[in-house]
Description:
- There is one protein chain.
- This protein starts with 18 loop residues before the first strand and ends with a strand.
- It is globular and about 25 Å long.
- By secondary structure, it is mainly β.
- 0% of the residues lie in helices and 46% in strands.
Amino acid sequence: NGSVSKPASAKKAAEAARSFNKTLAGTYVVTANVGLHIRNGAGTGKASLAVLPKGTKVANYGYYTLVGNIKWLYVQVTYTGFCSSQYLKK
């Protein structure tokens, strides 16, 4: 049909963060050796938008969702979505 699809560089999670704590705001670095999924929602059962390589810097503005005892930070890089705080270092 000749149409050109736009790159998927601006994907955003379908879910919104449920909580806010301004002390969480800042730049974080991915620490997971095999990379870290940025997800469509908080939790491992949510679809992955992408895998962020170790060392990737992401921004958090204080928003997160708690799943069990783990904060899933709502972060922004090329994508905007959720990452487990267990694999992010401020």
